[in-house]
Amino acid sequence: MNFNILTHRFTAPLAAASMAGLLLSGCAVAGASDAATQNGNTTEAESLQISESWIKAASDGMTSGFAVLENPTDHPAALVKVDSTLAGSTELHDMEGSGTAMTMKELDGPLEIPAHSTIELAPGGKHVMLMELKQELKVGQSPALRLTFGDGSTREVPFEIKSFTGAKESYAPEAEESGHTGPAEGDVHAGH
Amino acid sequence: MPDTDTAHAKETRLPSRRGLLLGSAAAAVGAAAGFTAAGLPLGAAAAEPDQALHGPDTIAFHGQRQPGITTPAPAFATFLAMDLIPEPGANEATTRDALARTLKIISDDASRLMAGLGVLADTEPEMAANPARLTLTVGLGQHAAAILNPDLVPGWLRDLPRFSVDRLDKAWGQSDVLVQFCGDDQISLVHARRAIQKDLRTLAKTRWVQDGFRHSRGSMPEGATMRNLFGQKDGTGNPVDAMLDRAVFGGEGLEPWVAGGTSLVLRRIEMDLEAWDEVDRPARDFSLGRRQSDGSPLTGEREFDTPDLRVRDAAGFPVISDDSHVARSQAREADEKILRRGYNYLDGTEAGLLFASYQCDVDRQFVPIQQRLDAADLLNEWTTPIGSAVYAILPGCREGSFLGKELLAT
Fold first, then answer.
1. Helix (H) / strand (E) containing A113
2. Are B46 and B162 within one domain?
3. Under an 8 A CB cutoff, do B61 and A139 touch?
């Protein structure tokens, strides 16, 4: 992953500075070392490293969220669900197909994060789908989403709202015809 | 590099182009000794002493003052002027919130870009990988400063007085927000500019973009004075050390608008290269008060000799004309000092100087000098200011905060 390569290329304090700058709203990245100091039974919420979390700005309808989830532990972990008061419902999605002909579908089960691995939620791949938005998500805001993990632990993670013109995920070809914005798109989802 | 706030990744040392160039110099020596250049082994370049690449060089974003002002001026600059987009039905609070979100986005982007990382959700993070001393520096025009905090708007933050030499085009005029991008690599520079424009597309629209250039990194000793497109050394008289610090960030008896803040006057000065071609060397030197050859004052021998306006020639005339650029711009008061950090521009057939001047107080430091130049400066015959804008430069920010956050009215 690019970020790791760059971390090595540039000096460690700089990389740390940029990580700190990432979450302007102040919620710290919970590191494995932090969790390890508490006791032997650290929860997944404590031990997973979550960074680069953002949501595509949207005025209404639906939108998608992304993040990098790193599991530095010796044990497998999983992201089970994402909740938000911002949206009527949220789902974990994956993309299938290839190239420009990709459609999305809900994940069959939890998002597995194997031991010592990093899962990237990114445009064109796995993502969090937020449907029936209850308020406009404006660029520069950083609302928190609630992440629930395989062991039942939860964590509030701030997501930066970014202007982004990609990530035009659609469910199926007919969703393409009904357009990508506005309530109609949310309806397509709600009816699925 | 003497600056303490620059960093360099030591492990990225590879044989550089410069090594190859030194190799060709070695080839010339080899040829004199009876070897052909072609006979020089290819490994000769790699055998040169370590030549560090400049791409990984970074300048810290966080600090009490913004970077890109007293840090060394890299080869390229882009000045991006943006106007805030009013939200429908916005009130004072929501307008201020939109400005805060704008500054938050810029700050987060700047901290990443200056460290050689893509911004969050970057579609081309690879382009950010060679920051090459990239800096982003943010200023606010009067309108935006009043949104930030009406109690803090400095008196000098307004259009400059009218000058008779001005032929100002609104197309290069005042904007709400200015971001100055400087760097030694055009790829990371262009990427940084576009990343900011993309991230702010719902918050601010671009008014203008002005690109400028100086000498390439490593082509001259660090800190050597730039030549402008008239061939003159430009910036010789800049303050240094303690005087620089006071001129830009103030001190006792010279108050900045906020601690760590300063001001930028950016003027687009068109230079008539065709007409300048007709001016012979003695007239050029007379107009400037310095020699084009080495920048030395007509009363001195070396570039940094102090011009002596009292020296007269055999006929009793001042050696440095009272109407020369050097004489007119000479400080009349101790604090009439500015930091010129200009960049050349060449845009089709239009050429000139992006005159970027940093000073603590525009009215006390910049305006008196410009008034004297306006009244009589021999160089005015070949130069025309066509753009002008004034910005309050925000103080720097610490990690976890963003530019201007602590200044927001509550």
1. strand A111-113
2. no
3. no
Asked if B74 and B33 sit in the same domain, the reply is no
DSSP A102: E
How would residue B240 be classed by pLDDT, with cut points 50, 70 and 90? very high
The structural domain count of chain B equals 2
Check whether residue B105 and residue B47 sit in a common domain: no
The pTM (predicted TM-score) of the whole model is 0.83
- Judged by a CB distance cut-off of 8 A, whether residue B94 touches chain A is no
B260/B363 same-domain check: yes
Q: Rounded to an integer, what distance in angstroms lies between the CA atom of residue B273 and that of residue B230?
A: 7
* Mean pLDDT across chain B: 90
User: Between chains, do B121 and A10 touch, taking CB under 8 Å as contact?
Assistant: no
Chain-chain contact of A162 with B199 (C-beta, under 8 angstroms): yes
**Residue-wise burial string across B111-137, b where 16 or more C-beta atoms lie within 10 A, e elsewhere:** bbbbbbbbbbbbeebebbbbbbbbbbb
Report if residue B16 sits inside a domain. Answer: no
Contact B136, B181 (CB under 8 A): yes
**Does residue B116 belong to the interface with chain A, where contact is any CB pair within 8 Å?**
yes
B323 in the same domain as B300:
yes
Residues of chain A with C-beta less than 8 angstroms from the C-beta of B194: none
Regarding an ipTM greater than 0.85, the answer is: no
Secondary structure (3-state) at A191: coil
- Are B45 and B137 members of one domain? no
Mean pLDDT over residues B90-119, rounded? 97
Per-residue pLDDT reduced to its tens digit, A74-99: 999 999 999 999 999 999 998 877 77
% residues pLDDT > 90 (chain A): 56
pLDDT of residue A169: 67
Mean pLDDT of B254-277: 98
Domain range for residue B25?
21-51
From chain B, the residues in CB contact with A8 under 8 A are: 11
End-to-end Cα spacing for chain B: 42
CB nearest A166 (choices: B56, B123, B399):
B123
When comparing pLDDT for B283 and A41, which is higher? B283
Please give, rounded to a whole number of angstroms, the shortest distance from the CA of A150 to a CA of chain B: 27
Structural domains of chain A, ranges and CATH numbers in brackets: 2-167+178-190 (2.60.40.1890)
Quick check: B101 contacting A, CB < 8 Å?
Answer: yes
Q: Are residues B27 and B160 in the same domain?
A: no
Asked whether the beta carbons of residue B107 and residue A26 sit closer than 8 angstroms, the reply is no
Single-letter amino acid, residue B401: S
Co-location of B189 and B219 in the same domain: yes
Q: Does B400 touch chain A (CB under 8 A)?
A: yes
